[in-house]
Specification:
heterodimer; A: alpha/beta; Rossmann fold; two-stranded antiparallel sheet; 5 helices; 11 strands; 23% helix; globular; B: alpha+beta; Mth169, Chain: A; three-stranded antiparallel β-sheet; 2 helices
C-alpha cells in the first residue's frame, strides 16, 4: 500500500501515523509537504494526520484546507483515490469540502483525551473490511472540537446512505448519550463521502496497533486497507 | 479604505462558548442579559478606493476562508 502522509505546520501526529502505516503495510509512507502541488506518483492512500494545523487559528483545519496540496488531494479523491483524515485531518477534510458538516467545540467545552468505544457500522468498505459490522473497538480520542454537526438534510442522507461508519458507543455497542463524549449528532465518530472513498474519523486508530501499547483494536483499519489494495491488484 | 467583516453563527447552531460566557456574565451579577452568541470580527485595510471592487473581494474572502457558510453568516462593511 503506497501511502502519502500530508504535513502541515502544527500537525503533530504524523509520526505515529507513519509508524502504524509502516508496521501494518510493510511500506514506508511518503511525507508530503503542504506547499507541494502534486502527490507522489502511484499514491494509493492519502492520509491527513491529526494535530493542530496552523494552531487551530480561524477554525480548526480551515487554513490547512486551503493549502496548495489540497487541490491535488481533491483531484485524487475525485478520481476515486482513498483518503483517510484522522482528528485534525477530519476537520481539514470537512473544511476542504471533501466531507459534509463541521466539527464544533465539544459540547462539554473540554478537551477530551481518553480511550473511547466505537461501534463499527459496516464491514463492506475499504476502511472497515478488517472489522465485522456491529463490532465494538477501543481507540483513543484527543480533541477539543470533535462534536460533529450538519443540517438535518445532510444527517438524513448520511444515515440513509449508510455513510456513518463509526459511532461512539458503550463497551457493548449501545448508542447512549453517556458514551457520546463530545455530543456529536447521532454519536457520529466517522463518516465517508458520497462515493465512499474519503473517511473522516475523530478517534485515533493509529494509536492502537501494537500490543505493547495495550490494545490493537485500531490495527484492522490499516490491515483492511492493505487487503483492499491487495485484492484489487 | 477600512473594512470590517463580521462572522456570526447561524441561528439554531449550538454555541457552547456563547453559553459559557452567558453563564459567566450571570455569575458576575450583570443582569438583564437574555443570551450571548460569540462571533468574530476581521478589520481589514483595503488598497485603493474602488468600493465595489473591495466589496466583491471581501465577499470572496468571506466565502472562501473567513466564514464556514455551513454554520456561519457574514457581513461586510466598508467605510468611505
Amino acid at each position: 500500500m503506497r501511502s502519502a502522509l500530508l504535513i502541515f505546520p502544527g500537525i503533530n501526529r504524523e509520526r505515529d501515523m507513519a509508524r502504524a502505516l509502516r508496521l501494518v503495510s510493510g511500506r514506508e509512507p511518503i511525507m508530503v509537504w503542504h506547499a507541494d502541488t502534486a502527490l507522489p506518483p502511484g499514491t494509493e492512500l492519502v492520509v491527513i494526520p491529526g494535530g493542530f494545523s496552523y494552531g487551530d487559528y480561524l477554525r480548526c483545519g480551515a487554513i490547512a484546507a486551503r493549502a496548495p496540496i489540497m487541490d491535488a488531494v481533491r483531484a485524487f479523491a475525485a478520481k476515486g483515490g482513498l483518503v483517510l483524515g484522522v482528528c485534525n485531518g477530519f476537520q481539514i477534510a470537512c473544511e476542504a469540502g471533501l466531507l459534509p458538516g463541521v466539527l464544533m467545540r465539544n459540547a462539554q467545552l473540554r478537551f477530551i483525551c481518553r480511550d473511547v468505544y466505537l461501534r463499527v457500522e459496516r464491514s463492506d468498505t475499504p476502511f472497515t473490511c478488517g472489522y465485522n459490522a456491529g463490532q465494538v473497538i477501543r481507540v483513543p480520542v484527543a480533541h477539543g472540537e470533535g462534536n460533529y454537526i450538519a443540517d438535518g438534510e445532510t444527517i438524513a442522507r448520511l444515515e440513509g446512505e449508510g455513510r456513518v461508519l463509526f459511532r461512539y458507543s458503550s463497551p457493548d455497542g449501545m448508542i447512549d448519550p453517556d458514551w457520546n463524549h463530545n455530543g456529536a449528532m447521532n454519536a457520529i465518530a466517522g463518516i465517508v463521502n458520497e462515493r465512499g472513498n474519503v473517511l473522516g474519523l475523530m478517534p485515533h486508530p493509529e494509536d492502537h496497533v501494537e500490543a505493547a501499547l495495550g490494545c490493537t483494536d485500531g490495527r484492522a483499519l490499516f490491515a483492511g486497507l492493505v487487503d483492499h489494495f491487495r485484492s484489487a491488484a | 479604505m477600512k473594512a470590517r467583516v463580521t462572522v456570526t453563527l447561524k441561528s439554531g447552531i449550538l454555541d457552547p462558548q456563547g453559553k459559557a460566557i452567558e453563564g459567566a456574565l450571570k455569575s458576575l451579577g450583570i443582569s438583564g442579559i437574555a443570551s450571548v452568541r460569540q462571533g468574530k470580527v476581521f478589520d481589514i485595510d483595503i488598497e485603493g478606493a474602488d468600493h465595489a471592487g473591495a466589496e466583491a473581494a471581501l465577499r470572496n474572502a468571506a466565502e472562501k476562508l473567513l466564514a464556514n457558510t455551513v454554520i456561519e453568516n457574514y457581513r461586510v462593511e466598508i467605510s468611505r
